[in-house]
């Protein structure tokens, strides 16, 4: 409507404005309906990607399963069983005197024989004087040597040692003895048992006394003089 003009008195302007309003409302309703239809008919695989999804995925290494096997070890036994001794009659013993005391080896020999040991080897003299008694043994006769040390001579086990090579006494003199006792000055005053040996266990004879006849010539008279030389026993 131009300036200076007035609306018609038949209200045609009001009807025109109402018609335009209804058209606009109808178009708006149609647009809303179309939008709803489009939302329902859109493809299902369209997803909304957020900004945080652009970060590369983090891959965690799979955890390894570790199986532990526990092995229980039985405790080691510290108990040691000592080998048994031989019957005394099966143990051949040689006794050598290194004490400097006359007759000590012979007395010890009688004592060991009375205890049942095989003392068929005569008493010997050691090549040199020794201050401490030592008892040697061949392989397999250590228990017997210790039994002689403690049971017969009251000596500690420390005096018992393996038979060295060469032997401290010539092997020809020991005649294959399994145990060799070298009496030292530490037992020079020992009191030994002089009981006779049991039956069946014979002691070899001690060294004999030698006799040498000496003839002295006199004028018209011959006198026979006998001298006696004694061999000192071990």
Walk me through this protein's architecture.
The protein has 234 residues and is an alpha/beta fold. It has a domain at 88-194: Alpha-Beta Plaits (2-Layer Sandwich). Helix content is 24%, strand content 16%. The protein is built from four helices and seven strands; from the N terminus they run αβαββαβαβββ. The protein has helices spanning 12-41, 104-114, 142-152, 171-174; strands at 93-97, 124-125, 134-137, 160-162, 179-183, 210-218, 221-229. The chain has a five-stranded mixed sheet with strand order 2-1-5-3-4, covered by helices on one side. The protein has a two-stranded antiparallel ribbon with strand order 6-7. β6 (210-218) and β7 form a beta hairpin. The longest helix is centred in the N-terminal third of the chain and has 30 residues, at 12-41. It is rod-shaped, with a radius of gyration of 63 Å. Residues 48-53, 191-200 and 205-229 have low confidence and may be disordered.
Termini separation: 169 Å
Reported for the largest beta sheet, the result is: 5 strands, mixed
Q: Give the CATH architecture of the domain at 88-194.
A: 2-Layer Sandwich
Helicity level: 10-25%
What would you call the shape?
A: rod-shaped
Indicate the CATH class of the domain at 88-194.
Alpha Beta
CATH T-level fold name of the domain at 88-194: Alpha-Beta Plaits
The number of helical segments is 4
The total beta strand count reads: 7
Secondary structure category: alpha/beta
Low-confidence stretches: 48-53, 191-200, 205-229
Q: Radius of gyration, rounded?
A: 63 Å
Q: Could you tell me the mean pLDDT?
A: 75
Strand content: 15-25%
Give me the side-by-side strand order of the main sheet. 2-1-5-3-4
Q: Topology as H/E string?
A: HEHEEHEHEEE
């Amino acid at each position: 409507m131009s300036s200076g003009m007035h609306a018609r008195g038949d209200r045609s302007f009001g009807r025109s404005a109402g018609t335009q309003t209804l058209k606009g409302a109808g178009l708006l309703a149609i647009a809303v309906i179309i939008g709803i239809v489009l939302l329902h008919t859109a493809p299902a695989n369209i997803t909304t990607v957020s900004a945080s999804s652009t970060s590369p995925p983090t891959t965690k290494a799979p955890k390894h399963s570790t199986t532990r096997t526990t092995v229980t070890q039985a405790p080691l036994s510290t108990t040691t069983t000592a080998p048994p001794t031989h019957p005394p009659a099966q143990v051949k013993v040689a006794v050598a005197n290194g004490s400097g005391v006359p007759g000590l080896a012979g007395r010890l020999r009688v004592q060991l024989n009375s205890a049942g040991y095989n003392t068929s080897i005569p008493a010997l003299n050691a090549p040199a004087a020794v201050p401490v008694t030592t008892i040697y043994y061949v392989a397999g006769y250590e228990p017997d040597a210790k039994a002689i040390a403690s049971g017969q001579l009251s000596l500690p086990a420390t005096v018992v040692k393996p038979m060295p090579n060469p032997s401290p006494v010539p092997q020809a003199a020991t005649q294959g003895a399994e145990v060799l006792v070298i009496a030292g000055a530490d037992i020079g005053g020992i009191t030994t048992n002089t009981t006779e040996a049991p039956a069946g266990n014979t002691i070899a004879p001690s060294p004999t006394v030698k006799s040498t006849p000496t003839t002295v010539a006199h004028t018209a008279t011959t006198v026979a003089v006998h001298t006696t030389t004694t061999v000192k026993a071990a």
